[in-house]
Amino acid sequence: MSEEIEYCPAGHSSVDFAYSDCKNYILSDGRCDLCIKEHFIQGFKTWSSGNTNIDKIIQESQMNSIYERLHWIPYDNFQNIEHIEDGGHGSVYSAKLENGIKWNWNFIKQDWEYHLVGYKVALKEIKDSRFDIVEFLKVIKTINYYDYEFIAKFYGTSKNPSTQNYIIIMELFDYDLHNFLTESFWDLRWQTKIEILLSTAEGLGILHANNLVHCNLHSGNILNSADSAISVIGLDLCKLENDLILNSNNKNNKISGSISYIPPEVLRGNEFTKKGDIYSFGGIMYEIVTAQRPFADQAHDTFLMIDICNGVRPKASDFMLNWIPEWYLDLMYRCWSDDPSKRPTAAELVNLIWDVLERLDNNIVDNDVMRQLQIADENQKNTSESQKQELFELFSYSSKLHPQSYYISRYIHTLHGLHDLLEEIKSGKSSDPNLLIKSNVSSTSSVNTHNIDEETEIQI
């Protein structure tokens, strides 16, 4: 049985500091944190990503991270590569990590022990030249310093020798939240819905506590495994809050994301903030109780951006309202407030949702919130056949999605960037650069929208 010891054969002491805030951990079975760090450093000369900035971030991670370190993983370590889907910045594949990654230098065996040998991972090949992989890796290095439960794990980077595109290697999941809801919505009880919501809020709270802003929270970035209701947040546009604050005096002409999840202040050209993430969380709340993504029945164009800035929000179908507690709707619309200061914080969301889940776990119905949940569950169970048929029609892909809706991250012209063209776009004299597909279908709709502030004017 392994036990802690005072010295390793190399002379390192357990009272030495291996990391800035953590003393050296030495075990009799061959582990020594300082030995691990030294052997990672010795290996720096044996690999290179071809980018000195990427090399530096990986090296800093291997020297300073206690839990998940970043690695440069040779492309020939991947076997059985299979395409999964294309995204806004590239393509996603699954692959087997044939030889695993270095994990622990064993001073008894005088050799590396490897982690994730034969494990299936996700490969995100970056094909968008505007995606800043160096800044992204800085964020991952910050997150990897701790072992967080509600954030997807990232293992390192590689490069496709055929395309010369960089690859991000991360944990592989069975499906994203949207796919999960599409397949399982009818059978979901409030217990599971609240569990998903809480784990998402927990993940967002972790980011915000580390001064990070997600900037692209949507159901495609919330990932699930088949054997767990716990969701984890995937990161792709996550940024350090300090970097965003430095740019806060400058208006953006373009942004990246999906219009239906982007807060009005960002559509106007302002920087994303933590409060912007909370607005996006409102879209997650909407999808959990409707199985529909926000504004699925509308074109995702400049006209929708104007509507959102004027207070228009998605609205659940009338028969679905009996399934949704009033407190839940109130919280969702608080997240969607046009005034960022009126939105809850991630910590507040965690506390509110945790309180509800704790009562659900213990079958406690002692306040109005829990009574509303109980009634909503009963109403869903007692849904009529005609209402079920309406739901099935909503689930039909062709009727559910407007041909000009778009849920993959893309570059969008903000209202600030379009300032001089807005009137011409409205009159039809200029084409809308935010409209991806030409269609005769109107870009506005009175169905499934709710105006939270009809008197709000567009502020650019």
UniProtKB/TrEMBL annotation:
<dbReference type="GO" id="GO:0004674">
    <property type="term" value="F:protein serine/threonine kinase activity"/>
</dbReference>
<feature type="domain" description="Protein kinase">
    <location>
        <begin position="78"/>
        <end position="360"/>
    </location>
</feature>
<dbReference type="InterPro" id="IPR000719">
    <property type="entry name" value="Prot_kinase_dom"/>
</dbReference>
<protein>
    <recommendedName>
        <fullName>Protein kinase domain-containing protein</fullName>
    </recommendedName>
</protein>
<dbReference type="InterPro" id="IPR011009">
    <property type="entry name" value="Kinase-like_dom_sf"/>
</dbReference>
<keyword id="KW-0808">Transferase</keyword>
<dbReference type="GO" id="GO:0005524">
    <property type="term" value="F:ATP binding"/>
</dbReference>
<keyword id="KW-0418">Kinase</keyword>
<dbReference type="InterPro" id="IPR051681">
    <property type="entry name" value="Ser/Thr_Kinases-Pseudokinases"/>
</dbReference>
<keyword id="KW-0547">Nucleotide-binding</keyword>
<dbReference type="Pfam" id="PF07714">
    <property type="entry name" value="PK_Tyr_Ser-Thr"/>
</dbReference>
<dbReference type="InterPro" id="IPR001245">
    <property type="entry name" value="Ser-Thr/Tyr_kinase_cat_dom"/>
</dbReference>
<keyword id="KW-0067">ATP-binding</keyword>
